[in-house]
Amino acid sequence: MTTSFSLKALIAAGLFGAAGLAIAHGNVTPQAVDTGDLPNLGDEVLIENPFREGNAHGDMQEEAVKIGESAYAGNCAGCHGIRAMSGGLTPDLRELTIWDDEYFITRVRNGTDRGMPSWKKTLDQNAMWAIKTYVESLPKPE
Length: 142
Prior knowledge:
Helix content is 46%, strand content 0%. By secondary structure, the chain is mostly helical. Helix 2 crosses helix 5 and helix 4 crosses helix 5.
């Protein structure tokens, strides 16, 4: 009888914990992003991060990381976790590589059929690339 009660308690605790994580990764109210002194990237969607060192605006990388950190906290952390540590419910953005730039910008702009909203009406590509630059600055998962 004690084993049966313990098993039920363990299952209930697991379900409660999972529900809490699901709520923590809930809806996000889009937050405006002040892209500050970053150069205007125009309307044509770029497929490579312009703020990465060695690219067109690599000299703005430090500024992009600062802006991206704030933009990420206000728009992405609710689902993808603080400092991009998702906890397994959504993709771990720290695992993206420089080869994933086009994948990243396409998913952020258009959303997915698995629950990620489209951000193209809320974030301009300056903000999107600043977020990618911030994520690239984080330590990779072990």
